[in-house]
Amino acid sequence: QNEEEWDFVLVSDHEVDSEKEIKRNKFLDELSMKGFTIKKIVDTKLFYGIRAPQDIFWKYQCLLTNPNSKRRNFSAYQNVPVTTRIRVVHFILQNTVTSDLEKLQDLMKKKVFEAAFPLHKEEKITTILNEKWARWSVLFKEQPIEEIRGYFGEKVALYFAWLGWYTYLLAFAALAGLATVAAGATVFSSSQVSKEICDANTTIMCPLCDQNCSFWVLSDTCTYAKVTHMIDNEATVVFAMFMAIWATVFLELWKRERATVVKKWNLYGWDEEEEELALQLINDSGYKCWQYKHSYFYSTVILILAVLMIMVLIGIAHALVIYRAVAVALFTQSDVELLSKHADTIAVMTGAVLHYITIITMSKVNWRVALFLCKLEKPRTSSQRENSFTVKIVIFQFFTNFSSLIYIAFFLGRINGHPGHYVRIAGHWRLEECHPSGCITDLFIQMAVIMLLKQTISNIMEYLIPWISHQLRKKKKPNPKKPNGMLGEEEEEDDPCKEQWLKNYELNEVDGFSLFNEYLEIVIQYGFTTIFVAAFPLAPLLALINNIIEIHMDAIKMVRLRRRLVPRKAKDIGIWLQVLEAIGTLAVIGNGLVIAITSDFIPVQVYKHMYSPCARENHTGMDCSTGYINNSLSVFHIRDFEDHTRVLPEFNGVHIKECRYRDYRNADDYTYTIQFWHIFAARLAFLILFEHVALCVKLIAAWYIPDVPQKVKNKILTGKHHKLCEKLSTMEYCTEV
């Protein structure tokens, strides 16, 4: 091995005769007693190169690779992959305790050490990663997963293998979404329903506000109606069912892909808990195993605090509802024609921007709360800690991202009352109403704005901030101080390590959550792509474009802009698979609810089969939805307006006595008509049928596609048979002797 190969570098400020220097020397002395070689280089900072002794890697191989070995093969450690060397050294550094009972993490909090990182090195594998992965010119080429594994470890390699597989299968979902929108734009754009709205120039609608608002003509919303029926049609139902099946097939095929990869990497028998115990014993032979513990008291406290946090997030969604209600009232009464004419749409779009801002803000709050709850839980191992944190942050982020969408999808326009008896906020502002052609366009706009903002602003910032930070760190180079002492060996005037260490130090910091953040970002995107996809069929296309860019943007950040991640071993994507399966189930429920409740699909079908001219007579040449719009609008007598309502009684020179509004109510006492209950029963029946069929199809798909390919199963079986045969032959030899 090259004597100038170093496993880790520690960095600290220049501190002379201070408490920090004493603490630093105590930690370095502990490492020296464990046989570590330490090299000190003085520049703008103090750099300490750390190289582990050969004995550590022999122990690692004995404990985990070859437990029957009886002799010390000191050359064997040379065959240990660099990723394993870094992982072992990192574990020992993190768990070395000084005489003051302080670990490296404690010392870094007290600024005794500023940074600790493994080194990026100029070698063949980094050249391959730079040429075939970390550049924009290879945007549509296959990722070098083996090289990623060889440099960043199995955990990072599995993440990119999963992301690549997800992106590949998104292409099919994106094509289906485009086909749905295309069908809506061509086949359904000239639908009878939107045509009736565009021709309804004599249908007078009730005012949108209480003070000095005039009546309006239904045909004014012709464009809005056409957009609505472009996404709210029969093709949407088929697409929603397709996406439910797609989500299942994606996960089942990923399980097969993962099984093939893990077998190839020989990780089937690897046990994370066993490895952590082995590393603890290598670090301290007297280590006492930390037993599993469970506290019902702490679990209750965590549950209560988590529920309180969820209530806060739901409260924020309510605040957005209040904003929209107030905004609609103010925009409608505005003197600016653009605002007053498109009050609903502008309120929806500005509400979506506010929702995006709350997502950005609350994500940071959610992070801190989840970390605090995780500390209360006191998980035993690092994997348990990560799983516990993952569950909490995913739940909080779900409510942060989707609470407002849930309101728009399932409550908007359904709890607002009716003219003469509106539900009001603080007894003043009316809740929003749905457009006469349905509420699904509001959901479409909200999702489009949030996804576009998340995938443009967030991605630009995600790339620009590390790039700018790296450039600033490179420029910020004060004059180096003179050397003032070495540890281990003399420093030459132009030490060959100095440039490499400085170059790595100038890169952006990484932490244990760097990869976690990438997972979380894509999982939230997966939620947007599946849960309400019936209302926004273009979501898979946006996700596909984002992921193609994301893969190579992450690659550039990892290889060129950030310090080297500590490689970690893994044989799957962990608890994220369960999270994805839960989202897949929610997607079936969510899309079923969108079609049953948000969409106008069910009311139109009920009208066609029970109330249309086709139901009463045999009209073969007539579109059965003829007359639907007039049927879906109730009549309100303006004499029944509330006392404080001030409307302009004349419209286009005509004195108005009654107006129309979207609902199924009687004209005399405003109670629900029998048609309302027919539609309600049909919605419920469709929801039950859709979800049962979709879940059955999911179960059949999961059964039909084995998690592990037969080829992999046979290789494992052959391996077991071979081992048993070897043992049997050894036993027979011993018996003969």
From TrEMBL:
It comes from the Eukaryota. One of its GO terms (cellular component) is plasma membrane. The keyword Nucleotidyltransferase does not apply. Keywords: Cell membrane, Glycoprotein, Membrane, Transmembrane, Transmembrane helix. The keyword Transmembrane applies. InterPro entries: Anoct_dimer, Anoctamin, Anoctamin_TM. GO terms for molecular function: chloride channel activity; protein dimerization activity. This is Anoctamin. It comes from Hippolais icterina (icterine warbler). The gene is Ano9.
